[in-house]
Specification:
Elements: H1 2-9, H2 13-18, E1 20-27, E2 35-36, H3 38-51, E3 53-62, E4 68-77, E5 80-90, E6 96-104, H4 106-132
Parallel strand pairs: 1-6
Antiparallel strand pairs: 1-2, 3-4, 4-5, 5-6
Helix pairs in contact: 3-4
């Protein structure tokens, strides 16, 4: 999904949010329960942008029907390097209705979980403010 990739690479999270369906479901690499909804998904992605360093997409794969995409990335969280993948599905309107993120290795996932845990109060407030407007 070229538009998502370009928005993330530009750190333009208003543009990222505009690509999300209202009923998007975000599945985290470090939390079992998925997060439903545009407001919380956008807030989580903004939070990730505050903890990832040296983020870059390295590869983009697209399914035959054009609705499934995989964006392979590399980043750091503190002194931990990680590799990951954003798995994206778009709905009939071309908006993202599923976003699943996976990361490796375990030490990178643990660093991400810790860093995002420290962000979560802010993320929850951002999501609440976004859904109120």
């Amino acid at each position: 999904m070229r538009a998502f990739r370009e928005a993330v690479e530009a750190w333009d999270f208003d543009a990222v949010e505009a690509l999300l369906a209202e009923d998007v479901v975000f599945t985290s690499p470090v939390v079992f329960k998925p997060y439903p909804g545009k407001a919380i998904t956008a807030a989580i992605l903004r939070g990730v942008s505050r903890v990832f360093e040296d983020f870059r997409y390295e590869r983009e794969l697209t399914g035959a029907d054009g609705r499934d995409h995989a964006l392979v990335f590399a980043a750091r969280v503190g002194d931990r390097a990680l590799t990951g993948c954003d798995f994206i599905h778009v709905n009939d309107d071309g908006l993202i209705d599923e976003l699943t993120v996976m990361v490796r290795p375990l030490s990178g996932a643990q660093a991400l979980a810790e860093a995002m845990g420290a962000q979560f109060e802010r993320i929850a407030k951002e999501a609440e403010a976004s859904s109120d407007s």
